[in-house]
Specification:
alpha+beta; 4 strands; four-stranded mixed β-sheet; about 90 residues; Rossmann fold; disordered C terminus
Length: about 90
């Protein structure tokens, strides 16, 4: 990441308009992060794993699952996008 300033999500979550995860790790975006996000913040997971965003804790939040119609992959493992309406 030469030339880019790296920060923890918890340091910038209040200012972010779009958050994209592509780490392959579990719980990169937690309920604590979701609670601190701006209204209308878009959260996306670009990987094939659906564990980066802690969706279990997000019952009152609206989720829209996006998938490529030409893809043969399971829809639950495609991009996940959440529009947060606080």
């Amino acid at each position: 990441m030469d030339g880019f300033r790296l920060v923890r999500l918890s340091e910038v979550v209040k200012q972010a308009d779009i958050i994209v995860t592509c780490t392959g790790n579990k719980n990169v975006v937690t309920r604590e992060h979701l609670d601190k996000m701006k209204t209308g913040c878009i959260v996306c997971n670009m990987g094939h794993s659906n564990t980066e965003i802690d969706v279990v804790c997000t019952q009152p939040i609206v989720f829209v699952e996006l998938s490529s119609p030409s893809s043969g992959e399971d829809n639950s493992r495609n991009a996940l996008c959440a529009l947060l309406n606080n």
